[in-house]
What we know:
Blueprint: H1 2-15, E1 21-30, E2 36-48, E3 51-59, E4 62-65, E5 67-72, E6 75-81, E7 85-93, E8 96-105, E9 108-118
Antiparallel strand pairs: 1-2, 1-9, 2-3, 3-4, 5-6, 6-7, 7-8, 8-9
Amino acid sequence: MKHIFLLTLATVGLMASDATGTWTGTLTLTKAEGSQESHSAYLVLKQEGAKLSGTAGPDANEQHAIENGKAEDGNLTFEIKEESVMKFVLKQEGDEIKGDIKREHDGDAQIAKLNVKRDK
């Protein structure tokens, strides 16, 4: 019985999502007046246990370091600090990551949606 329990735990651990890889897709920004604007998104992530590191930006040539990265049960959170702080709250489901990005810029709160897929 003990062996079955350990085997089950090992199998669950292998099935857990790993965010490591290159991800591409879109970032859709909702402007203050309600209009939307889409941009390309490019992430290079590395997950080691619950620690998430890497870079993110619009393409491979413009990347910004991820800070305070965490990955737990498919939930990914991190920040990018440039002129302001962008806070990412994302959900990984297999080879797709979706979620919200929030940023305060010049006193205005901005919200965007991120939708990226793993490059194969």
